């Protein structure tokens, strides 16, 4: 029966789309709200505000000298659903744990495409393979999240080797939602011993990534 619910609260039947055309939006007035009366009622800013990141070249210039890149994490890799597909041999073997940066920035540091690197922040350091990506700004580094290695001994499965979460501390959270600033940290990138690899001993073949990102 369309719209019926199971005992576990999962909607069964045909998915409904464009409900706003007949039911409106889930706001007090049923319309798209640019000025949030709900936020205003909570004594919060009713309009979006641009706030400088707590770790940035502007707010922490003393740190930016040692950690010159803006760090972001969380861009999704198509074969994966967060960390789940790491157990699939074809995915785990073909998709290395990556740190990505603009090739000009990488070359300025003497870092080659495919080599093992360390991404370092004021809170910690983790190992990845470097991938040159011309779509990134030269001052931005993207690090993949949710990495662990199913082939490594449990129960940890080397989950602290290429763990992007460990590059962030516990001091800076959005005061309204409680989320961490995972798109705007600071980091440095440095080369490491090629044998001290992030999850494998041989350099990755990036051709397998075509169409994945």
Per-chain topology:
Blueprint: H1 20-23, H2 37-41, H3 61-64, E1 69-73, H4 89-94, E2 98-101, H5 103-108, E3 116-121, E4 124-132, E5 140-143, E6 185-191
Parallel strand pairs: 1-5, 2-4
Antiparallel strand pairs: 1-6, 2-5, 3-4, 3-6
Structural class: alpha/beta
Classify the beta-strand content into a percent band: 15-25%
Amount of helix: 10-25%
Number of strands: 6
What does the largest sheet look like?
6 strands, mixed, barrel
Approximate shape: globular
**In what order do the strands lie side by side in the largest sheet?**
1-5-2-4-3-6
Order of helices and strands: HHHEHEHEEEE
* Individual helix count: 5
Mean pLDDT: 80
Unreliable spans: 1-5, 194-213
Rounded to an integer in angstroms, the radius of gyration calculated over CA atoms is 21 Å
**Distance N terminus to C terminus?**
38 Å
């Amino acid at each position: 029966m369309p719209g019926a619910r199971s005992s576990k609260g999962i909607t069964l039947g045909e998915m409904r789309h464009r409900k706003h055309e007949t039911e409106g939006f889930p706001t007090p007035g049923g319309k798209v709200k640019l000025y949030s009366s709900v936020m205003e009622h909570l004594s919060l800013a009713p309009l979006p505000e641009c706030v400088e990141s707590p770790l940035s070249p502007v707010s922490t210039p003393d740190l930016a000298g040692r950690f010159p890149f803006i760090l972001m994490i969380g861009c999704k890799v198509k074969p994966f659903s967060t960390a789940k597909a790491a157990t699939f041999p074809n995915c785990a073997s073909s998709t290395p744990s990556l740190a990505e940066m603009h090739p000009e920035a990488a070359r300025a540091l003497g870092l080659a495409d495919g080599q093992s690197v360390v991404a370092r922040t004021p809170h910690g350091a983790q190992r990845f393979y470097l991938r040159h990506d011309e779509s990134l700004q030269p001052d931005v580094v993207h690090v993949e999240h949710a990495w662990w290695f199913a082939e490594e001994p449990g129960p940890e499965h080397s989950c602290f080797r290429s763990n992007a979460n460990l590059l962030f501390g516990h001091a800076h959270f959005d005061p309204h939602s409680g989320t961490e600033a995972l798109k705007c940290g600071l980091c440095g990138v440095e080369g490491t011993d090629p044998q001290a690899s992030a999850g494998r001993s041989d350099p990755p073949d990036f051709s397998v990534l075509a169409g994945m990102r």
